[in-house]
Amino acid sequence: MNKKKYLYLILISLLLVNCTKQSPATTIVFNPDINIVINNSLNESIQFEVELADTDYKRERGLMYRRSLAENQGMFFDFPNSEIRSFWMKNTYLSLDLLFIDENYFIVDLHEQAFPLREDPILSKVPAKYVFEIKSGMCQKMNIKLGDKVVLQQ
């Protein structure tokens, strides 16, 4: 085999190996910023470890490309003002519950079991300043309802 063919085969092999590597998007590590407690109507305190989405980039990215989320984890979206919120599940592989929260930290709307990878908008029924995304089914499992209080712990 001549040198040129040998180098060509090495180049092709390297390209194939590189193409089969796992994308960094599938290995995003959960990195909590704060804790959140939800005080539900049964006087139970449910604690979550939370990543903050408090910049435009973080709010746009959200939980996209995540492959797992524990029951006690979530993402808290902090917006500069209250308004009707619109979310979608594009590039989001997890089914989620979305909690829409007002400026006084009360849950004012819920959207349970948002389907993964959907691009249709999920709109809050009322203005919200914050949105909290948690693993699908947690609202039902933990009896989280409209009017429950959310407490941020630094």
Write structural notes for this entry.
The structure is a single chain. The protein is of the alpha+beta class and 154 residues long. The chain has one domain: Jelly Rolls, CATH 2.60.120.1140. The chain contains three helices and nine strands; from the N terminus they run H-E-E-H-E-E-E-E-E-E-H-E. The strands form two sheets. The protein has a seven-stranded mixed beta sheet. Strands 4-7 form a two-stranded antiparallel sheet. Strand 2, helix 2 and strand 3 form a beta-alpha-beta unit. The longest helix has 18 residues. About 13% of the residues have low confidence.
What is this structure's SSE topology?
Layout: H1 3-20, E1 34-39, E2 45-53, H2 56-61, E3 73-83, E4 86-87, E5 96-101, E6 107-114, E7 122-123, E8 128-135, H3 138-141, E9 149-153
Parallel strand pairs: 2-3
Antiparallel strand pairs: 1-2, 1-9, 3-8, 4-7, 5-6, 5-8
Major pleated sheet: 7 strands, mixed
Order of helices and strands: HEEHEEEEEEHE
User: Which fold does the CATH topology refer to?
Assistant: Jelly Rolls
Number of helices: 3
Overall geometry: globular
Q: Which residue ranges are poorly predicted, with pLDDT under 50 across at least 5 consecutive positions?
A: 6-25
Q: What would CATH call the homologous superfamily?
A: Protein of unknown function DUF192
- The helix fraction, in percent, is 10-25%
Please identify the structural class as seen in this structure. Answer: alpha+beta
Please report which band the strand proportion falls in: under 5%, 5-15%, 15-25%, 25-35%, 35-45% or over 45%.
35-45%
- The CATH architecture classification is Sandwich
Count of individual beta strands: 9
